[in-house]
Amino acid sequence: MNKEKNLELEETIKSISYSFRTRLSMDKAYYKPGTRIKFRCIRCDVCCGTGPNVTITIYDLIRISKKLGVHPRAVLEQFMNVVIADVIPYITLGSDQWGRCVFLGFNQNGETYCRIYDARPYKCRVYPAQLGGLSEELKLDLKCPGLGKGEDTEIASSKDVQILLDETKRHYEKILELVLTKKLEPLRALYEAIDNEYRMHKQQQK
């Protein structure tokens, strides 16, 4: 199995342009937001159809709830998973019986599409770029078959990366304050963080 994965990775790397492979061979294969590389989404569903384990923030959750026209808690219960590691609750995108993202759709031609595209989580927006931590350094998911295809494209805009960083930081600050300072049970802390943020969001909409 490991041999097959290694061969698969080798084939992916071979398909990437020479200039891009040169950058990959650098000691520090990280990129700044706005870096342009050859990339085209080929709608293959490797990212969305292979057991999504994407963590999202309460801000992503609220945007999705607005798109669907339901309360964020309803979205959490119907479409998400909550994983509690020690005392920290993590929200992850749910999946269907085949392990595909619950929001992954297929049109009449069998092509994939996102059912919540304009409200998709910011981690999805910047893909195939991924955060390397809470800095602007980005790494690439080399399993993405779209790398090396198409025209030079901005892999992740500075604006999207900054929103992702800011919301990720605020999300965990709120959760940790409720868990560590107020000593709430993890799931209760998550519900309270969602309710508080949703209440503020509704007030701002008035």
Describe the structure.
The chain has a three-stranded antiparallel sheet. The chain is built from seven helices and nine strands, in the order ααββααββββαβββαα. It is an alpha+beta fold and 206 residues long. The model is unreliable at 16-28 (pLDDT under 50). Helix 3 crosses helix 7 (186-205) and helix 6 crosses helix 7. Helix content is 43%, strand content 18%. The termini are far apart.
Mean of all residue-level pLDDT scores: 86
H and E order: HHEEHHEEEEHEEEHH
Strand order of the largest sheet: 2-4-3
Q: What is the overall silhouette?
A: globular
Low-pLDDT sequence parts? 16-28
- Total beta strands: 9
| Largest sheet report | 3 strands, antiparallel
Instruction: Provide the helix percentage.
Output: 40-55%
User: Taking Cα atoms only, what radius of gyration do you get, to the nearest Å?
Assistant: 19 Å
Kindly, what is the distance between the CA atoms of the first and last residues, rounded to a whole number of angstroms? Answer: 56 Å
Percent of sequence in beta strands: 15-25%
- Helix count, DSSP H or I runs of 4 or more residues: 7
By secondary-structure content and strand pairing, the structural class works out as alpha+beta
List keywords for this structure.
alpha+beta, 3-stranded antiparallel β-sheet, two-stranded antiparallel sheet
Condensed summary:
The chain has 206 residues and is an alpha+beta fold.
Helices, strands, pairings?
Layout: H1 2-14, H2 18-24, E1 36-39, E2 55-56, H3 58-68, H4 72-79, E3 80-85, E4 88-93, E5 104-106, E6 112-114, H5 122-126, E7 129-131, E8 138-140, E9 147-154, H6 158-181, H7 186-205
Antiparallel strand pairs: 1-9, 2-4, 3-4, 5-6, 7-8
